[in-house]
Every structure is written in structure tokens, then in C-alpha cells.
Design goal:
about 170 residues, 9 helices, rod-shaped
């Protein structure tokens, strides 16, 4: 690449000396065309037939060994932006965890026994999760802070589990 640049600048100087202003314009055109060619080759990994551009500022896609973890982390990070992002992401996961924990630990069906589930879960967590209500689509209303989400997770974790129920009733 540097040889191509040296040659182009050499032609620019020679054209300017031999032809004056017209030569200078021709030489600048050659230099510009050379720089564009170099840029094009850099963006395509130096493969002239490659039509897939490689933008240097574009983030590389990293293969993650635990893609589900990445999705959960993404849902968690979006949960505070709006109630829509919370409802369509993390809330669904938390409701599923709540259903499993209630069913396995206490034999409570969340859909059929919401009053018992509400009493076990607590008002704060219930008001955040809003079981049985549709997901909201309002991006104007802010989501939940990490502390509130942590409280909800703690409330779900504090529910009786199968292992603790088996330990209490052998």
C-alpha cells in the first residue's frame, strides 16, 4: 500500500512540474483515486472480489458460551429504561420463575389462586410483576431501578421451594 502511495505522489509531482496547473489537477485526481482504492481494499480485507465490507468501527460479534445468560443480562439492563422494556423482557422471566416456585414449593397455581400467591409474594413484588395483567407498551414511563428488581427477586427466592418443603415434611 505504501508503494502505491509513493508512486501516486511521485506522479503528482512529475505532472505538476511538466504540465503546471493542469498537471497538478491531474496528479491530485490520481492521488485521490489511489486513496479511495486503498480505503476500499482495507474495508474488504484486501480481497478485491469481496463485496462484504469490513467496517473498522463496527463491533465484532463475539460468540458467547452462554447465550441465554447474555439474553437475561440484556433484559436486566433494559428493564430500567421503560415499563415496556421491563414487561416484554425481564417481567416474563420473573413471572415464569414465580409460577415454578409457587407450584413446586407450595402447590399454588398462580393463574387459579392469585390471592394466595399475592399473600406469599408480598405487595411490593406483586405490584411490580402484576401477574395476570397484559404487558404494557408505554416507552414513556420509566422502568424499575435495580434495587426494586432485586427486592422482587428476593421475594421470589424467599418462597418455599421443593427442597425446603421436603426437609420440613420428611
Amino acid at each position: 500500500m505504501s508503494r502505491l502511495r509513493v508512486l501516486a505522489f511521485g506522479l503528482l509531482i512529475a505532472a505538476a512540474v511538466l504540465k503546471g496547473v493542469a498537471g497538478l489537477l491531474l496528479g491530485l485526481t490520481v492521488v485521490l483515486a489511489t486513496e479511495l482504492l486503498i480505503l476500499r481494499l482495507q474495508l474488504t480485507d484486501g480481497q478485491p472480489g469481496n463485496t462484504n465490507l469490513r467496517w473498522p468501527w463496527r463491533r465484532k460479534k463475539i460468540r458467547v458460551p452462554f447465550p441465554s445468560y447474555e439474553r437475561i443480562a440484556g433484559d436486566l439492563s433494559w428493564a430500567h429504561y421503560s415499563v415496556r422494556d421491563f414487561d416484554h423482557g425481564l417481567r416474563r422471566r420473573l413471572l415464569r420463575a414465580l409460577e415454578v416456585r409457587l407450584s413446586d414449593g407450595s402447590g399454588i397455581d398462580l393463574a387459579k389462586q392469585p390471592d394466595r400467591a399475592r399473600a406469599l409474594l408480598g405487595e411490593h413484588a406483586w405490584s411490580v410483576l402484576r401477574p395476570g395483567e397484559p404487558a404494557r407498551d408505554d416507552r414513556g414511563e420509566p422502568g424499575y431501578e435495580l434495587r426494586a428488581l432485586d427486592d422482587v427477586v428476593r421475594a421470589i427466592e424467599s418462597l418455599p421451594s421443593t427442597t425446603s418443603a421436603e426437609k420440613e415434611h420428611p
